[in-house]
Amino acid sequence: MANTNSYLLKVDDLKTWFPVRKGLMRKTVGYVKAVNGVSFAIKGGETLGLVGESGCGKTTVARSIVRLVPATAGEVIFEGTDVLSADKKRLRQIRKDISIIFQDPYGSLNPRMTVGDIIGEPLKVQKGIRGSELDQQVAMLLSKVGLAPEYINRYPHEFSGGQRQRIGVARALALRPKLVICDEPVSALDVSIQSQILNLLKDLQDEFGLTYLFIAHDLAVVEFFCDVVAVMYMGRIVEQADSQELYHNPLHPYTKALMSAIPEVDPKLRGKRQRLSGEVPSIMNPPPGCPFHPRCPLAEKVCEAVEQKLEEINGKRHLVACWKSREH
Amino acid sequence: MSDIDKIISSKLPKGRSLWQDGLRRLWKRKLAMICFAVILIYFLLAGFIYAAELFHWHVGPIQWQEEVGRQYESPGWKHVFGTDIFGQSVLRKMLYGAKISITVALCASIISIVIGVPLGAIAGYFRGVTDEIIVWVYSTLSSIPYILLILAFAVVLRDKALFGYKLTGITTVYLAIGLTSWVGICRLIRGEVIKHKNREYVMAAQSYGCSNSRIIFRHLLPNVFHLVIIDFSLRFVSFIHAEVILSFLGLGEATRPSWGAMINDARIELSRGVWWQMAAATAAIFFISLALNIFGDALRDSLDPKLRIQ
Predict the structure, then answer these.
(1) Is the dihedral of CA A116, A122, A124, A130 positive or negative?
(2) What is the pTM of this model?
(3) Interface ipTM above 0.90
(4) Is B157 part of a structural domain of the chain?
């Protein structure tokens, strides 16, 4: 990582722990280490994909970046300022430049507000735009995301899931952000609608020069969409590489298992599936050493004792956190 | 851009909000609408009596003091509900009692909503120490038996001056009821706000820099407010009952007829076989209670936004 200035967002050793309290005095008896030392960086105009199974901390990473949940430790540098230590005023400015597209198109729109109010609210609270100028901007945003501007006075429940997600995209774009965090934006949609939304996001990226942090659990979606992919497991990044490199040369056994879970259309290309045995260990009580070792087919003594750091392996921006992968 | 200008300046189709949606569903329920009409009659009666007193109209209910017949005349063509010990018309007293009851229940409801809803929203939204203080206050309040608490408030407030305004009669009653019964609505709103606070639309509002007060008033309260209305309709009945109980115990309105005072009077009369004053007051309470209960249930079924999704 030679030139840090070219990175729009740099997350360094981010930790978000949730205390677990018990008993009458609400004593802290332990922590759920939802995010436990995550580092990555995104260049302007690039798309970084964050993948992993449910509960691995992807969403918490996204929410910690914009301080929707308080981070425990670490740094989030956005355009040279640390978001986590920014004061109220600065945070408000930062929130103009980072927006989020949420997962659930039903839960992320206020059911009591009209589409115009929903999309216009960021403009209202951040820029004080009102009246006909606001209507005009909202109408333009609606047409940008492929909805008719006539829908401005309608309510979210009058739209389908795909249309609602377009409304969510329009709201996220309202302030012309630099970074858009897409928190599983298509996983709640039908497959046919998924591709529409993904294409929309791609088009908007080209038009506005957006940078995406794209969170997903579907590797096929991520391959199509992302420049760089980071794989998370139990609150840590276990492997990170350029999209093509990761798909053709996965090194971490967990990534390999994920890859082999992608359905292959051509029966001749179907190799032997590598199935994972066991379950994800309790995040309250993680195993010592590498968190993946209880399920890892290659695990050895060293894996049980010491956790390998995420390290570059072959000079192709390919990072992996596995003892076994260095034997290649 | 000119295209967009044209579209905006033209009349745009209006969407149907969840409120309109709920009211449509309510409108379709015949029984609920009948009950609503009954409730409306009570309110109009109370309003009419206020107007009559203000403009000195000479109509029956405000002339309840007039002796229209002999003592204890039984119900008949001349006096529909008979007369009481002073020869006053029981019908007139019953109609006048509607004013007292509606006033008390309405004012008490407003006081309890004004206290309970913001406190519940603040507690649920901010959590932490604020939440614990508010929960502690209402838990303490609700641990005291309800009637005892109302009685204590009524006794303490009686004949005291508040902002230079002497508290008498029904003012004491609705203040006592209102100040003691915000716990239920506060607890309800707190729970709902906690539930809604973690919904993604609230997170979205936070993510683009909405202030806390904007999130509470523009996002959270509109989404829980239907519960306030439902709670209001059901609580209204219990407030009417509370007024009756206080008046019955002699802490309510002493100089003007209320349903509670009528029942208190009728207590002694019953042993002499004079049942009509009791019957009139009870009937008045019965019909508004029934109407409000059925209407409240219908409101709950109609205004629940979850029904929209199904």
Answers:
(1) negative
(2) 0.85
(3) no
(4) yes
